[in-house]
Automatic annotation (TrEMBL):
This is Class I SAM-dependent methyltransferase. Residues 47-163 form the Methyltransferase domain. Coiled coil: none annotated. CDD domains: AdoMet_MTases (cd02440). The lineage of its organism: Bacteria, Bacillati, Actinomycetota, Actinomycetes, Pseudonocardiales.
Amino acid sequence: MVRAPRGDRDDPAYLVGHSDAETQRLIRQAAFRDPLTRRLFTDAGLSEGMSVLDLGSGAGDVALLAAEFVGPTGTVLGVDTDPGVLRTARARAAAAGLDNVTFLDGDLRTIEPDQTFDAVVERLALMYLADPAAALRAVRTHLRPGAIVAVQEPNWLPESFTVHPPTPLWQQVWSWMRAAVQHAGIDPHIGFNLHRIVTEAGLGEPQMRLEAAAVSATNSDVHDYAESTLRSMLPVLVESGIAGEDEIGIDTLAQRLRAEALAAGSVLKVSDMVGAHAVVR
């Protein structure tokens, strides 16, 4: 996930801050997102020996996943504006013994890497840009003819997250998240709009896939993940008047979410992710 880009006051606000706890939340998020991103990379044709540019690397999960596809003969360069989170990404790559995965501190719209790439990938980055099509158009200059584009974003719509049977607290949490997204100026249809964004960027006609993880209420990770996400959003929620700290009760939120969902025997569909991939002509 990308950090707030520098130098554009029209960009949506970055909702979740830059704390160590937020970095750990990004890593936890991969448990739900990586299987969906893996299928996107497979569909797109990411393969051994490719050079890959990862936009908005955050803690490095997407870059590390891309490294599995390109193997030791390929390379991955991740870009992010936050040098702090990139320290974590570099440490994780080093711990995995991946000397072919590197990271660059910079704005994805203005970077000037000293190479061209066979593929560009991103997850949860374009949603924080005022003009994502223009950003991808700028990146296009770093791609070789025939390069692969594989991008993935959520939809922030009422139906994008589902609990069945429904529980009041989970519905309230999703409502708070959506209100924070709206307050930040993020496009709630960003996932569906990837078709237009990729096309307008001149990156070809994308193929698309919509997926979501589904888990039972016994999966503690989903409740803990929701709590950590609301914790990162808490300053925005409180300062905007969306919800008060007492109303949210962040320190016991995961426990209460789990109790309600277990009592109802619920299954949770984690928020939709839309993937788009294309070949640059």
